[in-house]
Amino acid sequence: MTAPFAVFLTAGAEADLADIHGWIAGHRGTDQAEAFLDHMLARVESLERFPNCGSVPAELDTLGIREFRQMGEQPYRLIYRVFGDHVFVLLIADGRRDFRSLIERRLLG
Question: N or C end: fewer C-beta atoms under 10 angstroms in the chain?
Fold first, then answer.
């Protein structure tokens, strides 16, 4: 049985995953980096069945922008958008960063 939604990582989201994986590998070890990657990819895969499970990012909600959603995996946040039966993961970043500026540059800029 095929999933009702097709999920795609944008080039930016793929780069985000690679950067975070590299940082974890360099600071905490390869095993933790691989565990992070496996877990995040499982979260991405869950969007095939439950694309609307995430909440609207507060930084966008206050601007009246509600077409983006997020999933959290402390301390990381995954931002995505649903178009019909397609889900596009746009951003994966550490939520402790200046997320408002990051969202403005990546999603609204």
Answer: N
Can you name the residues that pair with 69 across neighbouring β-strands?
A: 80
Nearest-angstrom CA–CA distance, 17 and 95: 14
Position 104 scores a pLDDT of 81
Q: Strand ranges (DSSP E) for the chain? A: 6-9, 68-73, 76-83, 86-94
The pTM of the full predicted model, rounded to 2 decimals, is 0.88
Question: 43, 52, 54, 33: which is closest to 13 by C-alpha?
Answer: 43
The SS3 of residue 11 is: helix
Q: List, in order, residues 6 or more apart from 9 with CB less than 8 Å away.
A: 17, 44, 89
Is the pLDDT at 54 greater than 70, yes or no? yes
